[in-house]
User: What shape does this take?
Amino acid sequence: MKPNRTLLDLFLEIQRLDRLPRAGFVLRGVSDPESVTEHTWHVLFLVWTLGQRIEEIDVGRAIEIALVHDLAELRIGDLPATSSHYFPEGAKKAAEAAALADVLAPLSERVLRLYDEYQRGASPEARLVKACDKFQLMLKVMVYESWGTGALAEFWDNPDNFPDGGFPLLLDLFEELRARHDAEVRKATVAEMRGDPLFP
Amino acid sequence: MKPNRTLLDLFLEIQRLDRLPRAGFVLRGVSDPESVTEHTWHVLFLVWTLGQRIEEIDVGRAIEIALVHDLAELRIGDLPATSSHYFPEGAKKAAEAAALADVLAPLSERVLRLYDEYQRGASPEARLVKACDKFQLMLKVMVYESWGTGALAEFWDNPDNFPDGGFPLLLDLFEELRARHDAEVRKATVAEMRGDPLFP
Amino acid sequence: MKPNRTLLDLFLEIQRLDRLPRAGFVLRGVSDPESVTEHTWHVLFLVWTLGQRIEEIDVGRAIEIALVHDLAELRIGDLPATSSHYFPEGAKKAAEAAALADVLAPLSERVLRLYDEYQRGASPEARLVKACDKFQLMLKVMVYESWGTGALAEFWDNPDNFPDGGFPLLLDLFEELRARHDAEVRKATVAEMRGDPLFP
Amino acid sequence: MKPNRTLLDLFLEIQRLDRLPRAGFVLRGVSDPESVTEHTWHVLFLVWTLGQRIEEIDVGRAIEIALVHDLAELRIGDLPATSSHYFPEGAKKAAEAAALADVLAPLSERVLRLYDEYQRGASPEARLVKACDKFQLMLKVMVYESWGTGALAEFWDNPDNFPDGGFPLLLDLFEELRARHDAEVRKATVAEMRGDPLFP
Amino acid sequence: MKPNRTLLDLFLEIQRLDRLPRAGFVLRGVSDPESVTEHTWHVLFLVWTLGQRIEEIDVGRAIEIALVHDLAELRIGDLPATSSHYFPEGAKKAAEAAALADVLAPLSERVLRLYDEYQRGASPEARLVKACDKFQLMLKVMVYESWGTGALAEFWDNPDNFPDGGFPLLLDLFEELRARHDAEVRKATVAEMRGDPLFP
Amino acid sequence: MKPNRTLLDLFLEIQRLDRLPRAGFVLRGVSDPESVTEHTWHVLFLVWTLGQRIEEIDVGRAIEIALVHDLAELRIGDLPATSSHYFPEGAKKAAEAAALADVLAPLSERVLRLYDEYQRGASPEARLVKACDKFQLMLKVMVYESWGTGALAEFWDNPDNFPDGGFPLLLDLFEELRARHDAEVRKATVAEMRGDPLFP
Assistant: This one.
């Protein structure tokens, strides 16, 4: 597969991103899990909403990073997290950067520099996108658990899924999410023990 | 989109009803939820079975109402219940009546009068179809909960989902359904507390 | 359904947008059609890419409009285009504005003013988002046709699907897309007539 | 599996019919094919619409036959047409009658006699349901072909799929359907040969 | 449908096996359940792995039986277990043997003799495949339960699902599986009662 | 993710392979494409059938290679073919070997040596599995094209998809498949040009 030649090539290729389901959910049995496109939109929405509330963030730059942060998957696929374990250090990152350059060839080089910044976590904006990338993951885990789909409990036990990027706002939101999750669990348990008309 | 011109136009258009999933289930995360067609068939089956057991019901008329009661969705879509909140009083009903008239244009006007009767709840048959419309909803909620799909607990708490239409037979059936539901919950809870080989 | 109270409520609610398939594709038989979330992301990507190439566009503002332009569907549903025909003039727009206000209650009022601007097409940014909304539609039609899914030919005959918003860049892109589409059709036909190893 | 004991048992069991896809479409590669429930509803709608236009038909009886004509599949499954070839003469019919009796145990025996009448084609109503059963099949084939899904051409070549049951109305409708089908094919071919913007 | 004439006919026909979902899971509400092809592969893997550890087993023969043991379903369909109840004694087995003969017509007769051996349980290899057929069922039940999909509890209560075929190795594995299942249930229950961040 | 500790761990993990769709089909828009498990079963069936007809093949060994040849994807994912372009030479093969070792840890080392043989194409059995791996791909392409799903024409133009492994039997089968494909295309074209009742 070649670098895209025109904007139209690029626009047509990215339509396919919708067919890539997120591997972490697929392998844990979630039915009809979100696509990479859907994940990316939600991250973008978070970055836009939260970026405005954090002084050191240039929202426009953060949005640009969020927009492209997963586009390499069009050519690499959405590798499960376990895959990193089996590739040589840095191989995945290098592959992603090269694939992204081919996908985005009709755009200016500036966006590839932003992506490099993202991979290295080299700016507040990069760190915010990374934090929102995981925050969106846990929001979706919360939703899927309430829908009863997938074996997702382990996500709550993995500290890597709760990176606040040094932003107190993110720290608060992660805590609020976890508190709400714990409350839901407790409510469900008590309801069941009472025989309340609430299904497990 | 125009009124259907011939019977064949009508028959072809209604085949598409199968692709419309029921919005209430979609938005609560049910995987592969029933279509509007499937809902309609089940309502019809209930109306036929129960109508024979209720003296004041003309089963033939009730069946005709049930057959067409959701066909407007072919052109309006299956709006989630929340949508009513945002449209002006009566706008949705008027839109449905107009859409149904276009869909069923090759049939006699009599069926539109039956639909108007249904919207106004103006006869025992209309009330029976309305009651069965909700009874079928709760039957499906019961089944989906046993399958573990969707966040459906709130349906049991909404009194609007238990309209008996003034028919003791429906009242009994709603109560029997709720009792069975509560028993299932209690059985599951006790089994879990004992460590029985029954999954939550 | 109430206005969202906190940011977290909002973030959790919008995860559900992924389950709303685009009605126009559903009713024309596309298998596994894009969700509203996916549509929204693609519009955003177009707005970002093209906005930078058009002098009078404030890209940041255009992106904000694109981000929220379809969120009302969380509460209204994705009504098929035919539905407009059956609702009173303006009823759908008013409902969408009210629903959006409830969804986005935890955000500032500024975003609702942007949405109003969008509905009225009252700024270059609003017109760009509207143009990209349709351009994305036709990109997806092109892709689905190449995949052989859905009865989509009528989309190419509807002039409403080709609004350039007064931007020459969009006009060019629509023409390029249509030219590529025609070329694909011609290539397929010639190949078939020759008996080339290319399937219809 | 036992005969259903109560009406509620019956109502809950039939909800599952929605998960049974029609085997003939599954094995020919149709994506997301209609369920047995959906098929049954469409047959019912045809029987109701057409029955009113045929003098010798008692519509109420015909509707009752249509309502139950495929319910045995809840316990037997939807066997592909090829299966008949491998079972002893009559084994499938006997199995279906026995299964239906268990499913419908809470109803009166009258409905089993109607089903027997249907299997033997022993009345005008039985013949009408049989004719509509195939007419609906061909309507759906027509729709799926326009959507580009499945390898369905052989259906048009099988005379068993065009039984008019001796009713001129059905004969006309089958002919109208075939004529429309042929016209669509011809239109598509000419469009392609001209290079018109219509995809194969 | 005729006997396959060439190897290529056979190879093309069996590709369709992927579209046949396993009826037992479909009717119990599992979302996106395994296909007959997938079931067959897993049985094969078990037979290969375990056969090597059992002295009296000729692994090559056992693999051949496993490879073909469900291919009759291409023409008969995957009948739900309840169907046996309604067909005359032996009708299903005879139908399967006849269908398999047609599917595998281009292969040697030897494989049909192996299938007959399987149906009669007439050799250690036949018994091993039968034991693995059920062991795979229970492995999948375990996985689906952990994913929260389907109403599968009854499978654990049916002794027919735990046939060890007289092989101590299988007996041990069935017991290990059941023990792990019970431990999971107990862990989930205790976690809930403590209000641990583990969802029901 | 760790190496599997027991046979039961291994058996449970491989059940998940069913949820991995084949990336090449996903990205070309095939609806509900085959899973990696399904692919593997079909390769196995081909290896078994064809291996018996080729003198130099030890069928038992070839089957063992086929059984495990794609199991690394459980941890690496099914990377699209384009991904190879972006990883350093050999990185993917090394990752696959390491992942397979972890998946199959409870089995003997012999199977890893067979896999290494497969990756290097170092034996007639390895070459047969590789040839069948592609032959199955083209069989499925043929079937999907007849079902009208996916943009698959390019597969027929890629010589890498037609490796005969030096076996005349495979060469013949590839040619027979291509001839049948060309004949289908020609038949469809002629039918359309005549306006025959066969849909494009």
Notes: Chain E touches chain A through 16 residues (CB under 8 Å). Chain E has a mean pLDDT of 93. The first helix of chain E runs from residue 7 to 15.
